[in-house]
């Protein structure tokens, strides 16, 4: 089967980045040491060259991921190998952060690319939970990462057919949590909002869909594709939680145009190199902060603090301020962790250089 790569997002600009003697391909799925790649002459499994492995060992962000455009070299034995990852236009990266047993943060400061060259980031949040209607804090986190990736976030409140009343209020609450972001209710079961979501994928645009297990991500992918391309499962009735139907990330070309990347459910996603993303999500707090009496106001009791004044008047929800503080602390922690890792790597490089210089001095006649 042959493919028109322009329908997958290939362009003349990307062609200028392709090394001589190689052909382009787009990564549809990754495995250990290899990737399933879509090239003009069909789909292939291509193993990584030593160049790619060395780059990934130095920085995990350089590891090929779903959505990457790559340079493929043809081997005499009759197969391709993945020789190079081409420059990314966007990259959705999560930090190497996890929860410790005492509720703190741990990690190595290194990131993992979840998807690359993505135009749209669908943040899928189910409208029905066992205890509440939507996790606004999770939406804020994912939208911040979406902005930081370079893609355009769009929040989809899924399973809207199960929401009996108050849907308009729910959407209003989500719009407060994600200012400036399109928010839509979607039901893959009856088709409400599916065509609207598909409009974001006109032409050769690529979207990644993120959210927790049970959000209906795979069901939505099937609805957008117009056929069952992903396996689905029902949410557990006991606790309202979903199971991890999707166990890998996969790029899926849609027959009507566009591409979508389905992802496993995300329990927790750490911040990585976050700056402007958090500012955009909390644009309301940033605007209030500009009205504070002191430019370095920490919004923790200083006189003339416009943020605390808005909190007292009810203009600013307390939940939102707490969420902002949490993401600010985590972003600062990750930045410090990353700086510490870079300093350690620099120290190790100098140790190697010094050792080689001493060895050379001993061997000098």
Q: How many runs of DSSP E, i.e. beta strands?
A: 13
In whole angstroms, how far apart are the ends? Answer: 64 Å
CATH architecture of the largest domain: 3-Layer(aba) Sandwich
What profile does the largest beta sheet have?
A: 6 strands, mixed
CATH fold type of the largest domain: Rossmann fold
Uncertain runs are 97-109, 235-244
Number of domains: 3
What is the name of the CATH class of the largest domain? Alpha Beta
* Helix segment tally: 10
What does this structure look like?
With 365 residues, this protein is of the alpha/beta class. The chain folds into 3 domains: 5-87, OB fold (Dihydrolipoamide Acetyltransferase, E2P); 92-96 and 110-231 and 246-262, P-loop containing nucleotide triphosphate hydrolases (Rossmann fold); 275-360, Probable gtpase engc, domain 3 (Ribonucleotide Reductase Protein R1, domain 1), CATH 1.10.40.50. The protein contains 10 helices and 13 strands. It has helices at residues 12-15, 50-58, 136-149, 167-177, 194-198, 217-225, 276-281, 283-289, 306-313, 318-363, and strands at residues 23-31, 34-39, 42-48, 69-75, 79-85, 91-99, 105-116, 120-126, 152-158, 182-185, 206-210, 250-253, 259-262. Strands 10-9-8-11-13-12 form a 6-stranded mixed beta sheet, with helices on both faces. The protein has a 5-stranded mixed barrel with strand order 1-2-3-5-4. It has a two-stranded antiparallel ribbon with strand order 6-7. Helix 3 (136-149) links the parallel strand 8 and strand 9. It starts with 11 loop residues before the first helix and ends with a helix. Residues 97-109 and 235-244 have low confidence and may be disordered. Its cofactor is Zn(2+). One of its GO terms (cellular component) is cytoplasm. GO terms for molecular function: GTP binding; GTPase activity; metal ion binding; rRNA binding.
């Amino acid at each position: 089967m042959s493919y028109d790569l322009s329908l997958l997002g290939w362009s003349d600009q990307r062609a200028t980045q392709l090394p001589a003697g190689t052909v382009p391909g787009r990564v549809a799925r990754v495995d250990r040491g290899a990737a399933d790649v879509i090239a003009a002459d069909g789909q292939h499994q291509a193993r990584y060259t030593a160049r790619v492995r060395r780059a990934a060992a130095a920085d995990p962000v350089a590891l090929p991921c779903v959505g990457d455009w790559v340079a493929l070299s043809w081997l005499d034995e009759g197969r391709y190998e993945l020789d190079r990852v081409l420059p990314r236009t966007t990259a959705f990266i999560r930090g190497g952060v996890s929860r410790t047993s005492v509720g703190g943060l741990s990690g190595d400061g290194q990131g993992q690319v979840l998807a690359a060259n993505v135009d749209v980031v669908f943040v899928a949040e189910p409208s029905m939970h066992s205890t509440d209607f939507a996790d606004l804090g999770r939406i804020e986190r994912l939208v911040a990462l979406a902005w930081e990736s370079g893609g355009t976030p769009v929040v989809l409140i899924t399973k809207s057919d199960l929401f009996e009343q108050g849907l308009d209020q729910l959407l209003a609450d989500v719009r407060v949590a994600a200012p400036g972001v399109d928010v839509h209710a979607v039901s893959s079961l009856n088709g409400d909002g599916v065509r609207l979501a598909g409009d974001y994928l006109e032409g050769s645009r690529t979207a990644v869909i993120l959210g927790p297990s049970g959000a209906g991500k795979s069901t939505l992918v099937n609805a957008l594709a117009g056929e069952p391309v992903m396996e689905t499962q029902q949410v557990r009735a006991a606790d309202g939680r979903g199971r991890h139907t999707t166990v890998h990330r996969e790029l899926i070309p849609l027959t009507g145009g566009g591409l979508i990347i389905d992802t496993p459910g995300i329990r927790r996603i750490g911040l990585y190199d976050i700056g402007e993303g958090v500012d955009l999500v909390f644009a309301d707090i940033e605007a209030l902060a500009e009205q504070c009496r002191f430019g370095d106001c920490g919004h923790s009791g200083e006189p003339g603090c416009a943020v605390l004044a808005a909190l007292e008047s009810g203009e600013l929800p307390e939940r939102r301020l707490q969420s902002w503080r949490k993401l600010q602390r985590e972003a600062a922690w990750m930045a410090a962790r990353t700086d510490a890792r870079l300093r350690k790597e620099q120290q190790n490089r100098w140790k190697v250089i010094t050792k080689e210089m001493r060895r050379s001095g001993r061997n000098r006649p």
